[in-house]
Amino acid sequence: MNISPRQFEIIEAAGKLLSTGGISNLTTKNLALEMQFSEAALYRHFKNKSEIVIGMLNYLAISMDTRIVESLSLIDNPLIKLEVIFIDQFKFFSKNSHFLVTIFSDSLWENNSAIHTAVKGVMAVKKKHLDIIFSEGIDANKFTSKINKDALIHISMGTFRLYMLKWKMDNYNFDLEKTGRKIIFDLINLIKL
User: Fold this and answer.
1) 23 in a domain, yes or no?
2) Cβ atoms 177, 91 nearer than 8 A
3) Would you say 158 and 166 are in contact if contact means Cβ atoms under 8 Å apart?
4) Per-residue confidence in pLDDT tens, the chain, 193 aa
5) For 143, which DSSP code?
6) CATH number where 79 lies
7) How far apart are the C-alpha atoms of 143 and 140, rounded to whole Å?
8) Residue 26 placed within a domain
9) CA gyration radius for the chain?
10) pTM of this prediction?
């Protein structure tokens, strides 16, 4: 998916509106005011609000995939890879909490199959990389084999999701990266040999 610089600006502005006022704050009127141009100008870049949200989610999936590939390219140890993948996510969301709002806004995607599919796409990117890491870790006797790989993926993704939800519910009032490292360290201690 190619995103033009103007589309990225719209995505960023939409994220800001979501962060400050939730889904009800994301209207084309508010977005046009935030961007300082007409509502009609928005429609030159996106057909509707749903397409903006899908653009946000697709951008998140692509950028996450790119960051993870780059972060892990020089690392051989699956334990370190697991730590790095989560720390990368904590760093990204610390600077871009509006993407988190989009993922956790069930009302955005529960009645919209295209948005629902885009959210699943974000999850699939993370699952793809975790699948590789856990396969390598089990094969190298770094991770327990008493829990199957799919369960390890669900446990780690669930831990991350719950922690991110806690951060959001606390209005982003704690150092996500610093405290997130502790959570990931504890998770690794539970599953490593």
Assistant:
1) no
2) yes
3) no
4) 678 888 889 988 988 888 787 777 888 899 989 889 888 888 888 888 889 889 989 999 999 999 999 999 999 999 999 999 999 999 999 998 888 877 777 666 677 888 889 989 999 999 999 999 999 999 999 999 899 999 999 999 999 999 999 998 898 899 999 999 999 999 999 999 8
5) B
6) 1.10.357.10
7) 8
8) no
9) 18
10) 0.88
